[in-house]
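Thread: Newbie trying to understand structure tokens

Hi all, I'm a second-year student working on a class project, and my supervisor (Dr. K.) asked me to get a predicted structure for one chain before our next meeting. I've only ever worked with sequences, so writing a 3D structure as a token string is new to me. If someone could post the tokens and maybe explain what I'm looking at, I'd be very grateful. Here's the chain:
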Amino acid sequence: MTHPLLTKLKITVKRILGRCVYNWVYLKKQIQKALDMPNGKLFSKKTGNNLVTLAFKRWKSCSFIIICLLGTYYGIGAFVSSRIDTRLNLEVKTSTPETHALSALGFVLRAQIDNAPWTPALPAIFPAAVLDNLPNFQIGAKDAIAYFIKYYAQSYQNKHLQKARELLNYPEDIWLFSQTKEDSFAPGSAKQYLKALAEIETFINKDASLQQANKPLLSELIKGVDKLLSDQISDINGYTREHTSEYLDFEADNLFYKIQGSTYVIHYLLTGIIKDYQSEIVDMEQYENVTTALKFLSDAVKLNPFRVKSTALNDSYGANHLIYLAYYLLQAEIYIKDMHHTLDLNRKEITP
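---
Reply by user tm_fold:
Sure, no problem. This is what the structure looks like when written as tokens:
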């Protein structure tokens, strides 16, 4: 049975290709005739009518060619732009001691808005506008950076960090026009986030060395990490309860990559915290806790399913990638929570 099917498929493909070649040659001849005309006749009404008539006569072929061109443009463009950079442990340079964690936040922010296009705001004319996973990853990373910048801004009470915090709260889907006022121009999201990055770097290079006494407490930063991980696990838990086993689930991958982007930021932040608070972490015997948490966070970031699935929890054969992600986050949270509890107890003992 296979042989007759293959034969029919070959004949069909040959017919389609032959038809395309015929129409392409015919169209080429018509264009060449138009080019051979004097300029006056080339742009005459008659020539325009002939081209319109040709398009109507060959509407199937023209439609097929347009679809192929659009498919090639968006397909190749989206494929080139779709890569999510989840490389961990890249070198983060800082010009000021004890600002490794803050520099790590700036490093990840630059990777999302400067080293790559900011896809959540791209209009439909760009191939990357059809992407789904990368925009959610970038939004998750940006939101996590804004979350932790809040802690630094509150601790340092610095104008640059306060400004960066405001800029990072700017809507992520603005390209050129405002979403709130009809037909009004607005600064692009990526432009605002680049300004936030500049404010963070200005603080690191100029003000951080003068304000080391105001450095955030280690227990406060770990508390922030613990809360963010807890919120992510709760989001997955709530989603799987409501949407598990849906045949057409287009939201599971959005949540998956948004949380993964946030986890990516937490990993870099914790790596910087180890350097900024090394003596305190060692003295409190918390090095094993933080490094083990980093291992589970790394496993969460490395999850790379071909398609995110959210099958029923009692299904022995289907995968539920959100649950896989939640498992690694929960394991990391256990060690972070233990670390937070120990640091909090120690602070209460020291404080009279």
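A couple of things are worth pointing out once you decode it. The first helix runs from residue 2 to 36. Residues 87-350 form one domain. Feel free to ask follow-ups in this thread.
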